[in-house]
Structure formats: C-alpha cells, structure tokens
Amino acid sequence: MGKTIVRVDALDSDIGENGDVHYMLVNDEETPFLVDSNNGDVKLRRQPFMNESSWRLRIRAIDGGWPYPRSSQMILTIYINGTNVPSKIRPALSRDPPNENTPKFENLPSMIRVNEDADIGSVIVRLTASDTDRGYAGILRFACWDEFFEIDAHNGELRVAEDLHDLVHHDIVHNVDSDTIVHNVTVTVCDMGEPVKCSNETLAINVVDSNNNAPRFDKPFYNVRIAEDIAIGSEILVLTATDEDFGDNARIAYKLAGDDAHVEIDNEKGILRVRNQFDRETNEIYRFSVVAYDHGHPPKLTFVNVSIELDDVNDNAPKCAEPIQKVQIPEDYPNGALVTCVAASDADAGENGRITYGFDSLLDKTSTQLPFRVQADTGCIFVDSRSPLDFETRALYNLSIEAMDNGHPTFSTVCTVLVELIDVNENVHAPVFSDIAHEASVYENMPVGTEVIALQAFDPDDPDAAVKYAIVDGDGMGYFMVDPAGIVRTSIVLDREVESRYWLAIEAEDAASVPLSSIVHVFVRVLDKNDNAPLPSRAIYFASVPENSPEDTVVVKVEAEDRDEPPSGEDRAELRFRIASGDPQSFFSVDPKTGYMTTRGRRRLDRETQREHVVYVEICDQSSPRLCTTVPVVVTVGDLNDNPPVFKQQIYNFNVPAEKTGELCRVFAVDEDEGINAQLFYNVTSGDNRFTIDESGMISVTEPLKGDEIAPLTIQATDMGRPYNTASARIILTAIARKSSEREGNHKPRLLNEHHWSRLPISDADNVGETIGLIEAEDPDGDQLWWTITAGNLNNTFAIRCDAGELLLARPLEYVNLSVTEFHLEFSVSDGIDEESGKIVVEVSRSPQRRPRFTAQHYRTQISEKTPVGTTIYTVKAIVDESGLTHKTANKMIVYGIHSVENLAAADKLRIDPSSGNVVVMESFGKDVAREFSVIVSARNGQMSNYAILSISLLDDNDNPPKFLQSEYSAKLLASSPLGSVAVTVQAFDPDVAENGVIVYTIIAGNDHGHFQINGATGEIRTMKPLSTSEYSEAILTVRASDQSKYQLADTCTVRIQTVVDEEWQPTFQKSVYSQSLRESTPAGSLLMTVYADGASGIRYSLQDPCDSLAVHSVSGAIYLKNRLNREKHGVTVNCTVIARNTMGAESNARIVLKLIDVNEHAPFFNQTVYYGICAGEYAPWFGRSKQRRYASYC
C-alpha cells in the first residue's frame, strides 16, 4: 500500500504557471490506484480484489495556465505479475481534435442595471457564447476576475459576489451628483482546445444607489449665543449634514421643523439667518428643530435641536409710567416744595435697566433757568427758585424729564410734566397793517413761487408774537398764495395776455386763543414780457400783379398783430416789415410801418421770364428782445399780350402726295403768352384757294395735285388777345407722284429701328416745336413715304412731318390734363398704295406745378394743459394733384413742418410728423406757456409750399377735486374756553387754477346746535356757543371743501372735537420724523406735507431756527417750500425741526427730513425738424427717380 508502482511524466513547453503540470486519475473509482498530482507517481491505494488481474488507468496531465488550463490524457494498463503481459507495454495517448475557432459571446446586453442592495448570489444576467469546434475545443468555460461579481464557469450566470454597498461608496470614479455608477466587468470565455482560445468582453454594469442612508448632522445638537440686536438677514450658524448615498439620495435640503417667525434657513446650504428681529425681553432662549432630508424616494430625514441664547443689548429706552403728568400748583407755591414724582421703568437687564432722572438737556435748553429741580435717583420734582412763581410771566411749565438708563449706548426717554398755574386771556388788539391797501407788480411767465409783495402786520398786544396770513377774497384767489411770513407769491405762472391785473383781500390774524384779525387789500399788476412773436393775419398771402406794372403798384398789404402789451401811449404794438428773402432782383418793396408791398425800380415784371415770385416778409416787434416772424407772399405775374405768335421757320417746304385730297401736312406757331393770349387760329392769306387750314394748323386740299406740281401758300397765325398779334410763314408744297400705280408687285413700307422711337420721353420743360423723335421707315420699292398720326393725339399735342416722320411737340403740355402720364400715339406710313401702322408711347414727366392745399386756412383746437407727452393733439391735412401719381401717392409726397410758433414758451413743446401732419406734444405744457397761442404749419411738395394757422387753447381741466390734507381731524378744547376760540383748522388743496382752484369750506353735518362756525376761506373752526362736557363731550363734524368751477368738485373730512375740563394736553406729533423725497425743480410755495400734533387749547406750529428753506402754516401744520432747493447749495438732505405749542406753553417737536432728487431738466432735441439728403442712383428704386430729395422724420 502506498508504494509507487510507476511514474508518468508529461512535458509542457510553457513557463511559469502555464507550464506547471499536475496529474489526475480520471477513473479513480474503478481502480485501486491513485496518482500523485505533483510528480505523477502511480500508487496502490487499496488491495486488489481477487478477480482483478489488470487495470486500464486514464491519467490526465493538466497545466496551470490562464484563463483555462490545457490538458492531455493517456491510457496506462497495469497487470498483476504472472498474468498475461503484452510483449511490449506502450501507453496509449489521446488528443483532442484541432482547436480552430475562437469562442464568441452571443447577444451581450448593452447595459445591465442592478440595485445597490441586490442579494449576494443573485443572478443579474446569463451570458451565452458559441464555438464551432468539437471535443475539448468546443467545451466553453466562463470566467471573470472582479471583487464584486462572479460568473459560473459552466452556465455563464453572472452573480453578485460581494455587498454592492462597498462598491457604491468606495468607487473612486463615482460622480456624487448621479445616483448611478458604472462598474466595468471584463468577462472571458475560453474553449478547452489545444491551444486554448479565448474571447474577452467588458460589461458596463450600472449600479443604482439605494436610499438606505439618512442624512447625518455633524453635531448631535447646536447651541449658539448671539446679540439680540443682530441684523435681519445676518448669518447665525451653518448646519451641515451628510448622506452616504449618492445623487438625489444624497442631495440634502434643510427646513425648520416648525414655523418660527424669527429665523429662516437656506434650503440648500443650511445657513440659518435672522428672519425677524429678536427681542430678549420677550424670550431669552429660542429653541427649535431643523430637519435635514434627502431627495430620495421615499426621502429619509433627520432632526437636530437648535438653541439660540440672546445676550442683552441696551435696546429699550426707559418708559414713563405716565407719558404726560399734569399737576396744578398755585403760583405762590413755596420754594423746595414737592411738586410730583416721575416714574419710569426699563425692560433691559443690569446696568441697561438702571434709570437716572434729570432735565432733558437737548429738548429743554433752559433747564438751568427753570424754577424746579429733579432728584436723580427718585425722579421727584421740587420747586427750586429764588423768585416766586408768576402767572403773568409764565402760566404753564412744560417740564421735559429725561429718564436715562446706564447702558452702552445710553437710551433715554423724556417724560412730560405739565405744571399749570392759571390761564388769562389778555388779547385786546387785532394785528395792524402799515396801510389799508397796497399795490404790487409782477412780470408774467415768472415761475410759481415768485415773490410779489412782502406784507407785514404786527400785534399791538405783543409785537414779537407770530401773525398768520391768509388770502380770503378777491379775483386773484387761486393765482396767488401767502406764506407764514406774509410774502405774497404766485401760485401759477401768470399770463398778461389772459389777465393783466388782480385784487386780493389778505387777512392777518394773531395767535391768541381767541384770535383777532384785520384785512388789507392788494392790487397786483401783471407786467408784460415780450413772449409772443408777431402773428400774421394769414399764414400765406397770395397776390397777383400784371407784368410790366409801373413802379409803386400795390401788390398786397401784409398785416399782423402782437399779443404783447404795446409801448406806453400806443394803441397797438409797433411792428416793422421788411423783405427777408425771395426777391434777389428787387422787383418789390414793402413799407416798413404799414406792410404794403409794391413794385419798385425800373425793372419790370416779365411773366414769360418768371411766372411766380415767392417773397418772404419778416415782421418784427420793437421790444427787447426783438421777436420776428416771416410770412410768405406768393405773387403771380399776370399775363399781357406782349408776345406775337412765332413760326419756327419762315419758309416750310413739304413734299405731299399727288392725286390725294384731304389732309396733307401740318404747320404751327408758338406764342409765349398764356391763356387766351396764347390761343391761336390759322388762315391762308395767299395762294391756291383749293387749300384750307384748321385751328390746329393742318393744311388740307379739296382737289388733288398733279405730279411735280408746286403750290406756294402764305399762312397767318393770329392770337386771341386784345389787341391781337399775328405772324406769317411761307409754305411750299411739292406734289410727288408714284412711279407706278399698280398694287400688284408693290411692297409695303417697312419700319426701322423701332427700339429707338417706340417709347419716347417728354417733360413739361420741353419747348413747343422741339423734335421728340424720328420714326424711321423705308420702302423696298424706293417709293416716297408719307407719315400720318391716326389716333391717340389728345388735344393735337403732337405733330408729325408728313414727308420725313419727324415727331414734334405742337402744343404746350400744360393744356393736357395732369392725370395724363402717357400718350399712346398710333400712326401709319404709306407709299401711296400700301401702308404700315405702328404705335408710339410718349412718357410724360412733370415737375411739381401745384402747391399743396390745406383743407382749411385756420385750424382751431382746445387741449388740456395736462396733455401727456406723445399725444397727437391735431392733424392738419393738405392735398395736392400731381401728374403721374395717384391722388394717395401724391399726398404721401407732402412734407409737413412747423414754420413758426407765436408763444416763445411753446416753441419746443410741439412737433409735427413730416409725413402724417400729426401735431404731437413733445414736452409737457408748463405754466409758462400762454393759454392761447398760434402755430403756423407748412406743407411742402417738392419746392412748392403752403401754410396754415393752427390756434391752440390750453384748458385748465377741473380734473382735480379739492383734497383735504387729512381725512380726519381731531382736537381737544377746554370747556372753559371763551367764545370765538379756534378749535381746529382744516385745510384742503386743489392743484387747479383760477376758480377751479378756489376752495370754500362749509360744515354740512354734526353742527345742529350751532356750537361751531367755520371760516369759508381759511377753514378755521371756532366756538359760537358755550361748551358743556355733560351735554357736548364730543362733536363730530363733517366739513366739505368745494371748488368754484361751473361743475363743482368737492371733498369731505371728519372733524372730532372733544371737550375736556381743567386739563392741558401736551401736544404730541403723530410721527417723530416726517421724511419726503423732493425734486430740485419743485417751485417755491409748493405744499410738501402736513404735520399734526394731538392736543387741546389751540395748537400753533412754528419752525426752529435755522430753517430758511421751509415755512409752516401756524394753524394747519402745512409745510411749504419757502425757497427753491438745489443739491449743490443745500446738499442731499435738508433737516428742520417743527415745534407744536399750545396756548399754555406746552410744546413738542418733530424732525422734517427732505431728500433732494436730481432732476433731468433737459430733453434731447434735434437741430432741425426736417433733414434733406441725396439718394445715389443705385438706391433710386426706393424713391422713384434718382437724385430725388429724401425727407427724414424726427423722433
């Protein structure tokens, strides 16, 4: 047992593992032997059975090659000693058939998807391959070398070998933005032939990430401390969570677990920011949860707790227990006596909440002079005065007690303590003006807010007391305003041409609790400025004068008017006339004062040289600066019969056909006159009486001429003028006979070079008698040819020489209708037997002969002064009849323009569309534009122009109802107030002018018992009956403000008046800061805003110096612009302080902040309204003929 019987040995030529040979016994179960796999020793593994004497061992030698080992097999026969042994023992070796083909994969999938959480061993695909070899060479084995996948060598099933989670999360080439990774697996299929043949393929396996990981925060909880005044939007902290998945499964978003009003979180970045301001005094610690969730399906989420602890900031000022304390003490109260104690609290902590009391050094600059002192730690107030309190000196003390904390920065609150002594009314005298009436003047066109006159009234009771002014009557209401200083200013831009004088009634009222007033009358004269150019009575003058007229013949009178005020002592403005252009040869003169235009000099007008003269007359006023307007005068020169007819030749020789009767040939004369003076008739004055001539000059014969017969004639042309003129010409007719009269064998005439004469141009510039073209023809037989026009010769405009074919212009084109653009002439050429016919197209081109004609000479329109920029306010229309064009096309060639504008201020406000005639608003109409003005518009067709007047009236549309500065007013009034006390003043504003802007106030409801009365002009509401708190604790009045237009517009407001007993309320502004943006262009006198302070006993408003730019209405609180502002002088912001004070001396203040805005005051403009250009020939199809004028429109 175990003894080596025999050793088998196989050789392999390969090296390494490929040449490492191992052995195996294929049929080991059938024999008692075994083979050592390493050295090939065959050993006995058991005792042979009794009946066994020999054995056939099948031994296989296998190498260690890759991807598949190769093998060989041999048959070894072993015999027991003494049994039949073959004579020669030889091992039997067997080999596979030759391996000729390489295995091939079949139907490989293009993409394989497998989920990350696929089970180990799960089959993801089964691969197939084929090999056409037989035997071992056809046996296939599959293999792959991959950490995460394996393949069954026999059936090709590709299975998951390891947890794919490790692949997904450790693949170094994975794109974290995708939920899929591509893992390449190389699979091999090999046969078992000799030599082994293999095929390799790479499979792309898409491993899909599974959302099996929830996000994880980097901390188990977050805690942060911040100051409570951290700014909104500030970053508090950044929460970070990670997810081991990929793609959307790893894309994390954040949100708050609940709705927290103070914080917000960035959904993507996890940045926690301040959403609303924190307040430590409300909550010292804010706790909430944040959720981090991925975008898988379904998503996974994680919570984390966040705590925000707030550090105290000194953000709370102390608060007064009573904002206003009221106490009454006798005026003989002893020095050192306790008046009252001020109580305040502070919500802050520590030193931020510890309060110290004292007089407010900022609001009460006279604190050192007050007869009181304040205890710093308790806030108690004591009398502290060397002199006793005196009611006559001061009846009420408004003590501003500052309660200040000890934080950084320091905050403080002012508590008001009203210490009342007694109120006594001592108002006896009304304000006094220096005179009962005043006269003032102001120039027209001055900007709104221009100072007219400064009025001053003083109060005899207290010369230093403030006096308020108001315009209460007069026809100038709405045109003027008066500021608190008594300066009367314009409220609109005045126009002397509309109204030259105004009366105003101005009231001055003192500031007492029961005020007194007086009235002064002011007469305002509006001074003229030369702002209107002279306006001619007609936009264009048409006149006619006979030619050869003697010197000083009156042609026309040019008239004009000027709306401006004439010089002193004159009934009308003095105008001067002169010829500005259009008369280079000095045919005319114009009287500089009267405007009469006459002929002048020795040069006489000659219609035949120039039929029409367009003279531009300049009309100028004599003011400074001098304004001028030009008006065109079209002078038509009338015709005199001063030109006789003229034949082009004195002797005409014509060859005419023999043996023919009727029309032979045509002659004509030319007369340079026009009309009836140019109409001609002809007659034969000498010669054979067989000949006649008609009115067109066609010579006819009644009896035929014989061959070679010569007939001389004398033809006379006579015009129809008075006196008439004549001209004669000699006509010699030579009869030409045919060589043969036989038709047989005769050849027709033949037309030649038709392309030269079949289409001929002609224009109205061609003269009568000129040759237009030559109709060429020949006769094959050499016969004489005769030409005749047979049709299409309108008005006998053309003539053809009978014996030569020369086509001539016989009559002027002006006698032909302008609509005719072509003549279609038919003619014949005859040899006396046969004839040939043809056609000629004569194209007619005309220069413009008709000037445009406006549909009206004077247009009128009314527009609102608020017409928006870009609005078409009117369309002027002109028409023209042009030859060669349709009516619509001819009118499209008209170019419109603005010739002049009467009012200077309106000159740049309007433009006219050159092609449509639309008059368009280019700039808003300011108040400086005249209410009525005229514009002279022009229409041009080529070089011919016409003009018309467009009169424009600017209307002040009553489109603005009065508007109260407040929808509701409230006031408190002592029940003990004397009758006539002012409870409150309401004020409305109307931006319209004149009567449209005059406001009248009335009480329409709530005053059934007549306790109150309102001043219709000023809006002051006064007491008329004693008030009782038990019967009349509160009055609710409805006040209406109406304008004085024809169709009145109105607004209403509510007035609440409370009656109080023995109390004086500290005035309290509704806002501590009133801010507004203001344009630099805002005129002086403009209403900016209204401030309001709540309180009793007739509050009066004033501005704290310095404040030179603003003014305040002492009763209504309306803030006006006193002087125009500009950023260069006043800076970007203007700050002022307004003070509200009641009759008892109690007061408060507020800040007014104006932010100045730069104004784009200058619009772009074109240097001219019409531009001309020349179009080169290659662009001619766009414009008709080349080198025509091109009119460009403006923007």
Automatic annotation (TrEMBL):
Keywords in alphabetical order: Calcium, Cell adhesion, Cell membrane, Disulfide bond, EGF-like domain, Glycoprotein, Membrane, Repeat, Signal, Transmembrane, Transmembrane helix
GO terms under cellular component: catenin complex
Main localisation: membrane
Domain of life: Eukaryota
Molecular function GO terms recorded: beta-catenin binding; cadherin binding; calcium ion binding
Membrane topology field: Single-pass type I membrane protein
Annotated compartments: Cell membrane
Matches recorded under InterPro entries: Cadherin (IPR039808), Cadherin-like_dom (IPR002126), Cadherin-like_sf (IPR015919), Cadherin_CS (IPR020894)
Domain Cadherin stretches: 2-93, 106-217, 218-320, 321-433, 434-536, 537-647, 666-751, 762-854, 855-964, 965-1069, 1070-1166
Record-level GO BP terms: cell migration; homophilic cell adhesion via plasma membrane adhesion molecules; neuron projection development
UniProt-listed PANTHER family: CADHERIN 23, CADHERIN-23
Full protein name: Cadherin-4
Lineage: Eukaryota, Metazoa, Ecdysozoa, Nematoda, Chromadorea
